[in-house]
């Protein structure tokens, strides 16, 4: 992918836009055997990943085990799990309303709304997240909807609005996440880097958070305008944004596209609380 070449860009742009409108129901692929997805099922998921940078699956039989979810991700090329402070040592991270040590009240582990972001935007350059999986074990009683947008579409919309937005967001100092300091101890140093970058394989990578606190944007009018463009985009209806509440046995596999989550309410019964598994991978799906 050579987005710097205008002829390439125009052809790529036309191809991307022609894929919409689309709904999650158009895309979801049923997985018949949780032990091993069939070649045809995998082919379909890979096609969606190539086209949209995301794919939805539904295991038709319950229950589904964590290992089977991880296996599906592996068959799509997501192999190396990146560990965060709260990750379970061996595998996928359970995302639920909980309090456990080392968590520091991170919003993902509450029932609050999560604003638009890509995963690992606070990671150092060598540990950027290129693949991501969200698997639903149990949905919330109300809410907890996932919204997502292919980050390539965000790039496209920014470039259409003003090509200088892209230049500003590719600047190596576009976005700084200040250090994470807890009780005087630096848990994570500050991370500065671009929003958009090009991976070694030519694919587009995005590092982004719409949060207003604990992010520092480069002090430059074009950067500020590009950031405002994105904030406005999140407030508007758009055929390029998909909304879906994952149900039990369903999941999303993506090349770390833009996503957010609405607030939710859990049932009072402890068996019925929202539980998702999340995997963050160093590779893109292939
Ligand atoms: Fe996320």
Quick description:
Helix content is 26%, strand content 25%. The protein has helices at residues 6-17, 24-27, 39-52, 66-75, 151-161, 163-169, 221-235; strands at 29-31, 54-59, 93-95, 114-117, 131-138, 142-143, 146-149, 175-177, 180-182, 185-188, 191-193, 196-198, 204-206, 216-217, 242-244, 250-254, 258-261, 264-265, 275-281. The strands form six sheets. Strands 1-2-16-5-19-3 form a six-stranded mixed sheet. The protein has a four-stranded antiparallel sheet with strand order 4-17-7-15. A three-stranded antiparallel sheet has the order 11-8-14.
User: Span from first to last CA?
Assistant: 15 Å
CATH superfamily: Clavaminate synthase-like
CATH architecture designation: 4-Layer Sandwich
- Percent of residues in helices comes to 25-40%
Low-confidence stretches: none
Shape estimate: globular
* Relative strand content: 25-35%
Helix/strand class: alpha+beta
**Overall tally of structural domains:** 1
Give the beta-strand count: 19
* Small molecules in complex: fe (ii) ion
Q: What's the CATH class label?
A: Alpha Beta
Looking at CATH, which topology would you report? Double-stranded beta-helix
Summed over residues and divided by their number, the pLDDT gives a mean of 92
The largest beta-sheet arranges its strands as 1-2-16-5-19-3
Helix and strand pattern: HHEHEHEEEEEHHEEEEEEEHEEEEE
Report the radius of gyration as a whole number of Å: 19 Å
The biggest beta sheet reads: 6 strands, mixed
Number of helices: 7
